[in-house]
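To assess whether ligand presence alters the predicted conformation, the chain was also submitted together with glutathione. Input:
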Amino acid sequence: MTKLYYATGACSLAPHIVLEWIGAPYEAVKVQFGSQELLAVNPAGAVPTLREDDGWLLTQAGAIVDYLTRKHPEAGLASGPSLREQAEAHRWSCFLTSDVHAAFWPIFLSARYTTDESAQARDKVVKAGHALVAKQFGILDAHLRGRDWILGPGRGKRSGIDAYAFPMIRWGIKVLPDGITPWPNIQALHDRLAADASVQKVLAREASK
Ligand SMILES: N[C@@H](CCC(=O)N[C@@H](CS)C(=O)NCC(=O)O)C(=O)O
């Protein structure tokens, strides 16, 4: 059975939601960052990590979401078939990995971004992270104007890319000074996803012990 190694609320929430949307049997394994169990399948000690029955391993949230949506075309979560539709899905996946996710690092791990150990210096790094996330959320919010989902227009249904955005939107709610209130279209995407029964099921599982 396909196995997903995840940590509560981390970016692994994205493939966790995608697996639930797909509806095929899978196992979700909660792990601690850097634990021996996780290091055995991912030398980075990070989530998400996906393991297939034959022992094949895949890391990187964007790659896992892409793999799962293409493995299960019947779920309708992959991009459309044209070269441009595929390129746009790739574009948004890269945006989420490299621009949005990375913008949160200075907030979550400020000590990695300055050699100054003072609280003031760390606070400045966190503030710089807030500005970085705001820039990226501004781009996503503008893109979402007039759209229900990230991929489209004309597609009219959710994709794996929406699931990929969801954990990052939740981080924004948690750590930004004003949450995501400056970005009404991101708020609407969040609310649309949060209302989904599969998303709620996954959130409840991740929150449980
Ligand atoms: N580029 C990787 C980043 C994975 C990553 O760093 N995940 C975080 C959780 S969101 C993690 O496991 N951090 C623990 C650590 O790096 O020790 C991806 O997109 O999958």
